[in-house]
Target: Major facilitator superfamily (MFS) profile domain-containing protein
Amino acid sequence: MTARPPRFVFFVVFCITIGGLLFGYDTGVISGALVVIKDEWDLSSTQQEFIVGGTTLGAIAGGLFSGFFADRWGRRIITFLSSLVFILGALIMTFAKGYSVLIGGRVVVGLAVGAASMVVPIYIGELAPKEFRGRLVTLNVLAITGGQLIAYLVSWALTDVHDGWRWMFAVSAFPPAVQLCCLPWLPESPRVLVQHGKDDRARAILRRIYGTKVPESTVEDELESIHRSMRTENATSYRDLLRTINIKPLIVACVLQLMQQFSGFNTAMYYSATILKMAGFSSSKSATQFSIAIAATNMLMTIVAISIIDRFGRRKLLLVSFIGMIVGLVLLGIAFIFIVGLVKITKDTCQEYAKC
Model:
């Protein structure tokens, strides 16, 4: 076992995790941009919801289809396409002259966000040496939270600038441009190459991944492991997931993901500046500035989790985070009661949704 991965692996991980950075930036930048756009265009609450939700809608489609095409075309092609879509979405939002165009740009960006969230961790896992795979894959989560923090900082810096919200979106075009420049040196996944019968190319890439200090037998063992894994996959079907031995872990994994979304944390990130203005912050600048603390805390705890997860285990860390989430959500709910009181939901918004 080597003490650290070769430099080539760090370069590869850096290039790929730009997708995670963009995922974080494009989901975080709307917080600061929305408080400015709302005042400039006099948007209703429903219209704001559609602007925010556009990315989520696009991400659903992007996530669904990117996995299918990543197996057929390769991870590298999907990374290339997602970079182009990120740039296209950024340009649409930057030059949007109206509400509908802005939503369209958000949906386009969402397609790339969904593709990145699907492909990036898989791509890293397949290009990382086995002994470093877990730690390198977690860098994608760090890139996402780092992207959110950068988005909040950029939003704070540009809030009072003329057309500042346009510049907030424009900034998101630069990281995918960097990723496109890196792509000529980014290899295809060995797994995809094996899947297409290109064992020699897969072996050459595995040799670069593991470095010259690792014996050839390690590379051959990894290649055989890929073949073995693919034989197992080809011998099974989706119906096998519903068998007794698989159904429990499948339900647990799906429910965990579902509950993470139902916790509303993403909503708190999307609307953090708006919520802080409701809480009494006098200006968009001050609300956006304080929002930085939320993103910074999120990134800090990601670093803490990465550093202690192997020591304490996934289950303990998950249970502790559950407690923290429950306490935080209860406090947030109490804060809303003090800010706006108990509100009866009586307004019929169907007509307003139809207009959007």
Summary: The chain is about 80% helix and 0% strand. Residues 7-186+271-315 form a domain with the Growth Hormone; Chain: A; fold (CATH 1.20.1250.20). The radius of gyration is 22 Å.
